[in-house]
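note to self — DONT lose this again. spent like an hour looking for the file last time. sequence + predicted structure for the chain T wanted, 858 res
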Amino acid sequence: MKNRRTTPEDRLRQRAREYAARMRDGDDPVEFWTAFCEEALAGTAESGLADPPEADADCPPDPKASRLHTLFLSLRTPVLLLNADFEVEVMNPAAVELTGARGLESWSRGDYAPVPLAELAPWLEGALEAEGLGAAGGDACRLDVPVARQHGARHFNVSVSLTADFSDRHDGYAVVLDDITGRVEGERELARERNRVAHYLDVVGSMVFTLDAAGKVDMVNRTACRVLGYAEEELLGRDWVDTMVPLIHRDEIRDCLYLVLSGQVEEEDERTFQVTTREGFKRMVQWQGQVLTTEGGLPVGMLLSGTDITEQRAIEEALAEKELWLRSTFVALGEAVLILTPEMAILDANPAAEAMFQMAQADLQGRPVADLHVSAGHYDDFLARSTSAFEAGEQAMFELPLKRRKGEIFPADQSVSLIKGDDGATLGVVNVIRDISDRKHAEAELKRSEEEFRRIFETIEEGYMVTDLEGTVLMVNPATCRLLQYDESELVGRNIDNLYKVAGERQTFREALQARGAIRGLQMTARRKDGTPIVIEANAHQVLNNQDEPVAMEGTFRDITRRIEAERVLRESEKQYRAFFENNHAIMLLTDPKSERIIDANPAAGDFYGYPIEVMRTMNLSQINALDRDEMFTEMRRSMDEGRTYFILRHRLASGEMRDVEVYSGPIMVQGAQRLYSVIHDVTKRIELEQEMKLLATTDALTGASNRHQFFALGGVEVQRAKRYALPLTVVMLDIDYFKSINDTYGHAAGDQVLKALSRAVSKLLRAPDVFGRLGGEEFAAILPQTGIEEGAEVAERLRSTLAGLAVAVGDETVTFTVSMGVTQVRAGDRTVEEVLNRADEALYKAKRMGRNRVVRD
């Protein structure tokens, strides 16, 4: 069989198929095939293979048009050419297959009469109309269109171009449909998978983060957002350590993440540390991490899972504190406490029990409690009473004697109760014992004292009187005779009505007593034998028989004439005080020392604080006092230590402004109640001046670091603290290399800028407790409390590296510099900070001799 001759059209068709195989999802079909056409036409022209088909004599063949037509027919991508009325004029075979139209050859040749797009592909026509194509001003567009087909839904990426863009025809459109069904289904499956994962992560109780290799958040679940108070978009893309971890722990956690991601250390099973919520609150979280890797094992990020254990940790601490408190209470109780096993053997005893029985803890533990009882009969009684109470669900309480180690017997009150577990099982017995020897002795003394009651009755200062219901005096004590200036014989048997100055008071007294049964603090006017009136304060009650019937009246009274006069004088004094209080230009407050409620305030106080007087009388000192309770106690202690008669506090005005005040306070009695009288002076300006003077006296004027005097003062305190509590302490000395050359080259002003830049950089890197100061010239020193020599050397190296990278702008010049540093630590034999600094200085000059720009340890 002869081989068919391969025509240029066959070769072009083959090249189109090969080129189409290179098309990928997401490529623009128009741009893709335009590029192919340009390439194909260029190749055809160069090879001279254009073999024009037969043509009319009047119309010479067009090789380029022939090749494009062949290309159009071979495209796998459906292509339709529409006229301005949205009628299909030409379709390639792929479009004919898609629309289900008949007459493939006619459509391919362009011989088919135009058909409305709505008849061939209504789904496409609707999508194009929705896009606004064909309306006035309609232009090219690109859109995704879903199509329901017999074998399932398909999705096309539709590109529409104006025919004017590539031909001389200006009234039509070229429509290219790229089948993206596979990509859409893949995206849907991916979205479903993501939704399943997101749903799982959102319903788990743990916080979940995924971090990229740089430590930035690229996924977070709802639990984390809820616990930490963030919205998801606030966390995505942010550095996890900077956002979550408190400043003090950031370097440690960042180093840990770096080491795990870089494979230098193995992943930890779990790690617990605090994180900060959006509102700034601290939460204790237990974290677990998993490194995320590529298929080749390269780390690309980390999965972090965290459980909030803040409440759990608080409960554990509270339980530990409660256990400690219970143990402390057990040890500190004044009453003896024995913890017994169910078999009545002593399991534990507090110090009070050791003292009571004169036995050490080791002697009591394991001993049968029966050994502490006087006899076997007493122990049987103890068991019987305890068992009876336990069976009734009660605590046993009774009096039963016990004996000490040497056999001394003493009376004891005993309380016995069961210790039960959650399941109701008996775990032990608590036996609380009180030595009542003193009480027994007191009872004996009380019996003896009854005989002395008469003498006490006769010697009390208050008058005592008993009358019958008619008012006849039955009994009086000597004080009554003395106060009323009568003999006893003159009063007993006499009606009490004769003793009242005001006749109506007797009737008022009797009616009140009958109505209430008792009277307290009733003021009346009595008349002495000589007719002199006295004011008395009486307490009385009815005496009842066994049938609760009143049979007599008894009561006491005292002469309050002088007190009444004193109260009158006091009221006059209070009037004078009120005038002084209200007209004084000094700020004055009258407060309740117990509740700190403001009782009164003078006009000067209202003007100072900015509140009306009526409002201030409803306020509490806590509303104007800006110091918390701890700060108040500190100031009180400082005032006592300094021998001051006043406190220095900060008060808050109505405007919110803070003012420093001196408060002079003292107790005062007002209407029988103790109050606190305070005079307040505004010393804000003075305090600010003192603080400025203190700052000038303790800091270096140029650099802002501690000056030499302040550095040695603070350093001495830190050295002594380190020695007292055996804490590590590192001292670093640093000196600018070739500083004289900087001054000589750029001038002393440049040298000053270098010193300032050094001080600022070092202060930023050091911690708040660290001490940093300028000792003189270009020499500085730092004291690092609770820092060992290894960590101190690392700090020094960070300082050296940072300072070496500084560039100080001086006019148009940029000055760089390096430092040499010496590091040492406090030793047991060091007595002063100077001794430690001398060693650091030696190490510093050793660094100078070794070439500068280095850290040398002592």
